[in-house]
Amino acid sequence: MADKTLYDKLWAAHVVRTDPDGTALLYIDRHLVHEVTSPQAFEGLQLAERQPWRPESMVAMPDHNTPTDPGFTTIDDPISRLQVETLDHNARAHELSYFPIGDIRRGIVHVVGPEQGATLPGMTVVCGDSHTSTHGAFGALAFGIGTSEVEHVMATQCLIQKKSKAMLVRVDGQIRPGVTAKDIVLAIIGQIGTAGGTGYAIEFGGDAIRALSMEGRMTVCNMAIEAGARAGMVAVDEVTLAYVKDRPFAPQGKEWEQALQSWRDLHSDLHAQFDRVVTLDAAQIQPQVTWGTSPEMVVAVSDRIPDPAQETDPTKRAGIERALDYMGLRPNMPITEIQLDRVFIGSCTNGRIDDLRAAAAVIKGRKVAPSLKQALVVPGSGLVKQQAEAEGLDRIFTDAGFEWREPGCSMCLAMNADRLLPGEHCAATSNRNFEGRQGQGGRTHLVSPAMAAAAALAGHFVDVRTF
Amino acid sequence: MQAFTRLDGLVVPMDRANVDTDAIIPKQFLKSIKRTGFGPHLFDEWRYLDRGEPGMDNSQRSPNPEFCLNLPRYQGASILLARENFGCGSSREHAVWALDEYGIRCVIAPSFADIFFTNCFKSGLLPLQLPAETVDSLFREITTRPGYRLTVDLLAQSVLTPKGAVFGFQIDPFRKECLINGWDDIELTLRHAEDIRAYEARRRQQAPWLFQ
User: Fold this and answer.
1) Fewer CB near the terminus (10 Å): N or C of chain B?
2) ipTM associated with this complex
């Protein structure tokens, strides 16, 4: 039999039926639900008098809209409150696994799913959120869907899909000290572009990916969508299995042994064919900083801001000019001269315990620059927060002048009260630097947690390796 | 779902690549639990000079006079012309709902982001892909000819320009069929309920831990 990619294997295991033209019905094992993209789907279900096909496949929690103020009990914004209450109601009505406000397990859906073992190797995982690609780190096929597809999965446990093409992004060698998973994925996006992965499912491989923790692999897969790919994935190995073992939703005892058997095959075979292969040399990757309004507008911290005059493609040139105008930056300016107003550490990209440890290691014993208006740490879940507090990380942050908040999506997308004011520059560990993403007129620079921490201390970008 | 067969419509040009769904419908409007009410806030941050909030009376706000949707010549447009990678970013289907409610039935671009592309078909919008050179020529023609319209014929898979040029386009046959008939996906899938149950029974044997 021909050698298969990991994507081939995951796809084949979930096809219910295929039409002659290749349109398939794909079975969904896990459906993660949050408050923003689900209310219309639940309503659609109700209007059509349908019941969820397999409510036990669903795990729900509010995350996008929730306040992060320490010890908050209510949501002041009545529209946000209604949306969260609507999820409360729907979760109870359908008896879903639910982590409401006040539950220590609540947090960002892409942090909580893996943390609870609700994400398992070999699964298909969907959620009405584009960063669902995160869960591919477990050797799962995971991708974001719109609200109509959320309703479709609720009603049928399936999605109508055609198979994507397969891309291998291989990062060879070892990353250097001070370089992290975030820098790897930003470098990948810088190389293939924000649409480079459109139409593909990306498998991340190579020594540098194998050497990452599960948290690091989740960071990489999380941003597959910023390279245009709905799904990103990493093969299962001992690191994966050690992470999953004994999580609340993970199989136990005899079933665990049975699961291990099937999970060990979740890798691409030696001679598997990919439609496209991209390679990077890990040793060449430096700490990355985005300067523009698309994640592909990224350079190394030691670089300068590009000069649109050097760009020959007129659409790209116009894009650079528009981005520089929006960002208030000039061509050829060194990245380290960008002055910051706020720093945000958190999100489904970098809100896990490893991320907080990496930031705290830089910050320990030092102070946030007085020029900064705000430095914010928002743990990805209640359990991440608890773990960080047990390790004393919260004190390191607060002693330095950071605010220590309750878990949620927070300033990644600024649906709650955490946001930038027009013109402010923010070093953010999140995933999107689009215009207005962190607040209308706000200017986002995407970086790793260590780079964000160093920038908070300096008040501008600095190379964390020499800081 | 509304069907899409043929559309003769005024075209509004948005000359930029990577138009993301955060721009199409900013996050503050996603707090709504309804499927409607997004059209007035389509491209809110580009369309208005002040910050928009849900429930605002837009007639009291200051529109950005330079933004394409605000130019008098493009009022009533039902076709949006844009550059590469339209609809990138967040999975929010609210972006499609906003376009639809505003009156855009077809977006023409050289390429689309995957999730947005899929979402369009769920609301009967046509994301129409044309080669970059063709899109480029359409941009040039629009600026020289006020009242520029295109006729999009889904059945024939063609776009007709005022000068009489015809451009063919590709579309997945299943998606085309669904659009033309306005079919509801869920209804289609539930016809295969027996297949789904059979799959589940097989899978439960192989991987019981998935069904806890």
Assistant:
1) C
2) 0.97
The burial class, CB within 10 Å (0-12 / 13-18 / 19+), for A15 is: middle
Q: Which of B34, B91, B207 sits opposite A262 (nearest CB)?
A: B207
A183-229 confidence digits (pLDDT tens): 999 999 999 999 999 999 999 999 999 999 999 999 999 999 999 99
Q: How far apart are the first and last CA of chain B?
A: 35
Partner residue opposite A434 with nearest CB, options B23, B54, B114: B23
Take residue A263 and report the two structure tokens written for it.
């999970």
Q: Is A148:A267 a contact under the CB 8 Å cutoff?
A: no
C-alpha span between A122 and A138 (Å, rounded): 8
pLDDT digits (tens, 9 = 90+) for A274-286: 999 999 999 999 9
Q: Under DSSP, is residue A93 helix (H, G, I), strand (E, B) or coil?
A: helix
The span from the CA of A237 to the CA of A207, in Å, is 13
| Euclidean distance between CA atoms A238 and A332, whole angstroms | 45
What's the first-to-final CA gap in chain A, in angstroms? 53
Tens-digit pLDDT profile for residues A81-127: 999 999 999 999 999 999 999 999 999 999 999 999 999 999 999 99
- Backbone dihedral angles phi then psi of residue A385, each to the nearest 5 degrees: -60, -45
Q: Do B23 and A251 touch (CB under 8 A)?
A: no
Cα–Cα distance, A179 to A160 (Å, whole number): 40
Q: Which residues pair with B6 in a beta bridge?
A: B153
The pLDDT value given to residue A315 = 87
| Cβ distance of B115 and A130 shorter than 8 Å | yes
Helices (H), A234-313: 238-244, 253-263
HSE (side-chain half, CA atoms, 13 Å) at A71: 0
| Nearest residue, CB atoms, B16 vs list A230, A255, A319 | A319
| CA separation for the pair A273, B159 (Å, rounded) | 37
Do residues B61 and B36 touch, judged by C-beta distance below 8 A?
no
What predicted TM-score, i.e. pTM, was given to this entire model? 0.98
Single-letter amino acid code for the residue at A222? N
Q: For B197, name the nearest residue in chain A, comparing CA atoms only.
A: A16
- B126-129 and A158-161 beta bridge pairing: unpaired
* DSSP type of residue B203: H
Residues of chain A in contact with residue B66, where contact means CB-CB under 8 angstroms, are none
A414 in contact with B at a CB cutoff of 8 Å? yes
CA distances to A17, A372, A409, B193 from B197, rounded to whole Å, are 12, 57, 36, 6
Look up residue A387 and give its two tokens. Answer: 């773990």
Q: Which residues contact A237 (CB under 8 A, 6 or more apart)?
A: A210, A267
Q: Is the dihedral of CA B102, B189, A44, A109 positive or negative?
A: negative
Give A 242-271 residues with CB within 8 A of chain B. Answer: 249-251, 255-256, 258-259, 262
